[in-house]
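note to self — DONT lose this again. spent like an hour looking for the file last time. sequence + predicted structure for the chain T wanted, 460 res
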Amino acid sequence: MKGNLSINSENILPVIKKWLYSDTDIFVRELVSNSCDAITKLKKLADMGQAGELPENEAYKINIELNKEEKVIKFIDNGIGMTGAEVQEYINQIAFSGATAFMEQYGDKLDKENEIIGHFGLGFYSAFMVSDKVEINTLSFKEDEKAVKWVSEGGSTFELTDGDKTSRGTEITLYINDSSKEYLEEYKLRGVIEKYCGFMPVGIYFDTLPKKEDEKQEEKEEGKEGSEENETPAEPINDPSPLWLKPANECTDEEYKEFYRKVFMDFNEPIFWMHLNMDYPFRLKGILYFPKLKHELESIEGQVKLYNNQVFIADNIKEVIPEFLLLLKGVMDCPDLPLNVSRSFLQNDSNVSKMSGYIIKKVADKLNSIFKNDRETYNNYWNDINPFIKYGCIRERSFYDKVKESLVFKTTESAYLTINEFTEKNKEKTGNKIYYVTNEQQQASYIKMFKDNGMEAAVL
C-alpha cells in the first residue's frame, strides 16, 4: 500500500519537520515518551483484564540502539504495539493523538496519577528533523494481528507493508541525515537521553552497535548477555522511580542529599530542602533545595528542573517558579501544566499563577517553621540563606508579608535578632533606632566604641 499523509490541518499547520520544535534534541524525548506511553497503555489494559495472555513477570523496557557505522538510531519497546489500521490512524493522520483516543476510550477507568504522556500526536514527526528516512516495525498485542512496516522518506509520503517483527511492541528506526550526525556520537546521544529521559517511568537501556569482540567478551564475563531478541544491559540509564514520587515521611536525609548530588553534580551538601506534594487544584510534586554558598560574593545561580509526568521539559520557567526562587536548586513535576504543542512553553492558564503562589507559600512556611521550632538551627542557617530571603523580600511582596516576622539581623554581638527583638533588647540605649555597620574590619574602631558603651549595631 502507498499513499499521501493526511494532515489534520486545524491542529498542525505548519509545524512539520524543522518548524515543529526549536530544539532538535527533543526527538529523543518524543520517541521515548511514545514508547513509555505504549508500555503504560499495555499495563493499563492488563490491569483491566483486557490485554489477553501476557508472559508472566515480563520486564517492560525501552532499548535505544546506536549504530554509528550505519548512521542509524533505533527505539525499541515491548509495549502495546500497533495494528495496520492504527498505524493508518495515528501515524498517517498527522496530529491525531493515539494518547487522546486511548484516554477517551478508557479514561473513566484510569488512575490519574499515571497519566499517559502524549497529548498532541506530533511527537513522532520530530524524528524527521534529524532523519532522511524513518521506519516503523510494529506488532500489536491483539491476537491474530500481523506485523506491519511503515516507511517514509522526508515525511510527506509513506509505504505500508507487512512487517517481519515477531515480538510484541514497536521498533522505530531513524536513518540520520548528514546535518544531524552529531547524534551518532555516543556521548552526545547518551547526554540527550539522560537529560530528557533520566526519570521516565520505564527502564531505558542504551547500547552501541556493532559490538567489538572485546566488548562482547567483557559483557559475557559480566553476565550481561541475554537470549532475548534484543539483548539488554544489566542496568537502565534512567531512574524510573525518582525521589520526588516517594512520600516525604519515607525519605531519609541521606536519600535527599544523594539525589541532590546526582541531579546537580554539586558535592556541597544543601542547607535544607522542601518536599512538595499537592493534589488540588492541580498536581505538583517536587523537591526544592537551598544550596550552600561557598562565599558571600559567589554568583547565585540556581537550577529548577521542570518535568511533566517524569519527562524533562525545561530549566527555570519563570511563569511557574517565582524569579527569586530560581536561585534555588530543585525538581518539580507538574502533570497539569498547560503546555503547547512542543511541550516547551507555557500557555496562559490560571493554574500557573496558582502554582507560583503555592511554591512561595511552601518556602515561606518552611522558613517560618524552622524559625519558630528550631531557632538555633535557623540562626546557624542565616548566613547561607539570607541572600535568597532578602532578594525574595525585595522581588515578591507576598513572600515578604509571609516571612517578615522571621527576618533576622546579625549584630555586632554575634546575635541574630528580629527588629522587634533588637529594639526591645537595646531600647534603654538606642530607643527605637537601629544603628548598623557595613564593614566590621574597616569600622572596627566604631564598633569598639559602641561595645565600650554597651551598645549593639546590626551588621548589614
